[in-house]
Design goal:
With about 190 residues, this protein is mainly alpha-helical. It has helices at about 20-30, 35-40, 45-60, 65-80, 85-100, 105-115, 135-140, 160, 165-175, 175-190, and strands at about 5, 120-125, 145-150. It has a three-stranded parallel β-sheet with strand order 1-2-3, sandwiched between helices. Strand 2 (about 120-125), helix 7 (about 135-140) and strand 3 form a beta-alpha-beta unit. The longest helix is centred in the middle third of the chain and has 16 residues, at about 85-100. It starts with a strand and ends with a helix.
Length: about 190
Amino acid sequence: MSGLILLDPALPFAPVRPDPSIIMMFLVNMVPGLGQRVIGRRRKFSSEELVAGVLATVCADPSRVPPAAVGQHIEVARRRFGYTEADREFALASRSVVSAAGYVTGRAYRRAVDSVRCPVLMLHGTLDRLIPVGMARVAARAHPDWSMIVLPGVGHVPQLEVPQVCATEIREWLGPAGRGAAAVAAMAAASPPR
């Protein structure tokens, strides 16, 4: 890997204050069967209501998400209604995140994060309820060679809330830091396989 750009990434758990409602959501999903039942109740809501609820959870200001992007999310939600395994898989995905990033169970994930040796840009919103910005700050302190940009007033999906800001920050980073990553990638592509 020659370079890495992370947008509000899932990070190994750190001693920071999480959002209580998000902790409850993950705890419910940790209980086999219960998570699926709770998720299954979502079927009584329209696709529009489900998307609005998700955006309210992941965005600091859902009104900043372009209407075309909201429409695409609604279309995906409609298609999911026809997929009978979606509820089970969502619960499994939630359990997987907790297992991978957890204090005790996340050792392999922490080793993988610590093994990253390429240039890294991490963008993180100050109002991310899923991955508190404090976790990103802990990761940045542990990896002082990473570049971290904190986005004030932004939630978990800066690429939806402030896409122009994200694009500008990424382009600027690709100048000095990304140039080295691009050079490494070009050398690797030019080298014959061993």
